[in-house]
Amino acid sequence: MHFSKSFVFVGMIVVGVTLLYLSTHKNSVRPAPRHSTHGSKGNLHHRPADLPTSSLSKQHSEGSGPTESIFQNSSTMNSSSAPVRAPASTADGAEIASLESMTATLSTFSRPEVGLSDLTAFLSSTTQKPLVAKQSNPDTGEMSIVRTDNPLLGTRYFHAQYFKDESDQTFLQHMSFEFKPGESAMAEAVAAVRKAFPSLTNPPLVNSPSFVKWALDEKYIVWIKKLEAADLRDNPFNAYTSNDVGTVRVAVEAEIH
Amino acid sequence: MPLHFYKIFSTMLAAIILILGNSALASDDVRVLEGPLDYIACMAGERLNLRDETLSKVLFTVKRHEPAKVVQSFGQDQQEKTIDGVKYVFIKVQFPERTEDPNIGWVAQVYIKTKSECGNYTEPAPSPVPLSEWTFPTVKRASQSYKTGARRFGASRSGGSRYHAAADLYRVHGEKVLSVNTGKVIRDRYYFYEGTYAIEVKHSDGKVARYGEINGQVAAGVGLNKVVASGQNIGFVGTVTSGCCNPMLHFELYQGTATGALTQGGNKFNRRSDLIDPTSLLTEWEHDKFGVSY
Prior knowledge:
The structure holds 2 protein chains of 2 kinds. By secondary structure, chain A is α+β, with helices and mostly antiparallel strands. Helix content of chain A is 30%, strand content 24%. Chains A and B meet through helix 1, strand 1, helix 5, strand 2 and strand 3 of A and helix 1, helix 2, strand 1, strand 3 and strand 6 of B.
């Protein structure tokens, strides 16, 4: 087996992120993983203990037709309900650990040596349940969007976009996640980015109370934005309500403008 | 100390194995979809109930194939409920086209799928359309010249290490962006730059235009693989979150002779090799539409 230097380098980077994750999450409250109807092995592996296998098999398949009561005009139900996912912890330590883990993820997986499959493998290993939506056309090629179904506590809406260039090489164009709103959320996100990107020794290109941006190199930027009401409107991927004002988004992006 | 070292070494080894060779594990744990990430209500019947937090009250019903967005709320996003002996997992979903307040509620997860996963959904195939008249892509003239300053194609960026790949047409936030000719949407809105989006259209003469720095609002009748007419509203002027610049349409044009992503390395524009300077065409279209041009 041939181990190139870059391969070992990639491995070491991921080891670092993994160690960070393990060290910061050993005492944190983890949300119960979600399960979905997609795939089987992974879902069964992550299935909460209070949901027996047989109940999954009772869920409707597309062709089996629905029961009456879940659809319109259901009036009577003999039902019981219970949360599958634990409520969010208010423990600041756990949420900060998640924030640091996700900024480290942005730092590690925005390096050119690290690819899409490395990212999804890492997200799987940290039980974030990644999904990849691939769409391609004959003209502008393939775009892969990576999202997660089970974000770390205090974070959400992880989103990465990868494209293929003229030589069929995949590259990252955008990677971001959101951090829970709070009085100090912006400052905590800025601190986490400084920690995860040690090369950020220069002053930020933009430094305002609600937006901070650095150039990582000639091709990429990293920014942190405290989202205002206008930022929450018409997002094609994420759902918001007015309660989400103040959410902080952290992004690494190709310098495209 | 030796035990500590052993733990670190074991973790490192596990991570390296994961990265270097365990693609089978990754493929089992990663859900891969072919097609866009467009969620819809997908069921055999016509209507599906959207419930409140308690799952006992129906807020409203949604139609089959109605667009949906799955909510992640930092908190509890799933519940389960047994209905007529069947246990369902309910997830929090927003139906963005609904005017009801709230338009977020709980729906059985099994009935929320992407278009490509929904067996009874078929996207109508677009029919080819002939080339029409070219037109300027904003409803009024740009408020400043797109031939000068940082707005012009080829303007210096990043201290001269790269060049601007577009003409920036300064306008008003939220104003309509228009298709420059007939064409087909080949890539619907995706994250472009600092909180703005882009849409890609292949026009009927083969040119590809990227309408960048638009906001996320969907224009009526516009979507992936949809045919658009010359002058049709295909998006809305956006503003980057840094506040660096006026609201604008960042307009890029490609000859259509190359394939692959429009953004890439290999030249100082960081763009595909068939990128063209749109300035002279914009001048022509501007003059035709407004009677004057910069």
